[in-house]
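Translate structure to sequence.
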């Protein structure tokens, strides 16, 4: 397993329930180990197995919900 940790800044995050929705959607993706969306800072924190899913798949799910990703950083563990 190659764990990847990504921190990203979300755009258009307007309420705590929006953060919960993103957390729930990404949490159901196979290969996602941890996900947290911080409404107050518009930060997305996600850890996933890159042998099972990709950042592009996760980003696509976020954008389909109507939110943009302004910036991201990632590291491998």
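Result:
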């Amino acid at each position: 397993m190659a764990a990847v940790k990504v921190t990203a800044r979300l755009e258009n995050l307007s309420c705590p329930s929006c953060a919960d929705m993103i957390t729930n959607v990404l949490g159901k993706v196979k290969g996602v180990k941890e996900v947290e969306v911080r409404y107050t800072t518009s930060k997305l924190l996600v850890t996933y197995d890159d042998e099972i899913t990709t950042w592009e798949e996760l980003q696509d799910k976020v954008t389909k919900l109507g939110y943009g990703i302004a910036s991201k950083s990632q590291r491998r563990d």
